[in-house]
Amino acid sequence: MESQQALKEDKIGRLLLKYSVPAILAMMVTSLYNTVDRAFIGSIKDVGALAISGLGVTMPLFTILGAFCVGIAIGGSTNISIKLGEGNKEEAERILGNTFALEIVVAIAIMIIGAFFLDDILYIFGASIDTIKYARDYMSVIFFGTWFNLPGFALNSAIRAEGRPKLAATMMIISCILNLILDPIFIFGFDMGIKGAAIGTIMCQLLVFIWSTYYFTLGKSNLKLKIKNIRLEKRLLKAIILIALTPFFMELASGSIHLVTNRVLKIYGGDLAIGAMTTITSIYLIFLMPVFGLSQGMQTIIAYNYGAKQYGRTKKALLIAMLVGTIILTFGFIFIRLFPELFISIFTNDSKLTELAMNGVNIYTFTLPTIGISILGAVYFQSIGSAKISMFLSLLRQVIILIPVILVVPRIYGLNGVWASQPIADVSTMIIVGIFLLREFKKVNKF
Question: Is the pTM of this model over 0.85?
């Protein structure tokens, strides 16, 4: 109860430190894992360039899987935070149980689809005869782990929502460190290649699931995961899904743009261009992950205070988060500009792949400092329950603006047009998000 009272009374800057730093650390460790994971895959003898291209093919499918995982988790945790802000613990526990049940149902459906249609899906997403083996080896294992990955992620998100951000982050950090240890063992020690990377991933997801389940059943949690609440109630599912739609479509949009991008890249640069984009987005995420962590911390603060009708505090949390996010991304922009070859060399030593990535990374990351405003602005509307606005703003950057741009601009500028499409979408989205935020603050008299 002390942590929940602090959400209502402590200084916003202090709360952002308390809730965001653990989440940022968890995201940074996750980013480190992704970096090392792809570096290991890219260094597999004789097949590294094709293997990382095969991994690039899986990205649309991976992000679609993440859409269900993250969307439902955020829908549940945001509702939990709001109910705790209202002082309704019993309702929060019912939401926890329904979120857990929904993730399991969705996970089973995904496993069944993956078992029967994986190759067909991968070919649609840009796989070729040369890359299908690597894409299949990776995703078949990832699909198998969905039954514990999805509910485990939801429970971890709920831990943060009930006021234990350090514990939630600790679980993620430890699982990622374990992944860093397991990857080389399975990839090289057991000579399992890209499948070994996937096995290491799902083993760590299983750890998070077991640990989070223990916390909410036998551990010292405020909320309890009770068997009577693990069911699907229409009223609660509607509340969860309403908020889940925004992060779901954000992730789904990411998967869609990966699909479109892979197909365009294949036209203008072939399999290696897909590998170059995988390398570039891996570098991109190193600096974007802290902003996602910041959004998680900000979301808990905003959702709780919105439920408690402390509207001025919600605005302040957003503005401070935007300032910090912009600073982080500006440093990222500077580092990438100064040391592009160093970053690329982490993922590949193939000369042709390096040449493609060098050209692409300088164009693709040109507007990196502006992205925090777009991401955090959309999350603000999501946190206060304005699902339609949040969904629209989230889809702007990755679908509404980006897809038309990436289909048109490369026709004029070729491969450089593919790299330039994201910066064009980033600037446009930042302006529109800013307009929506100004209108929202004026409407509720927050100035």
Answer: no
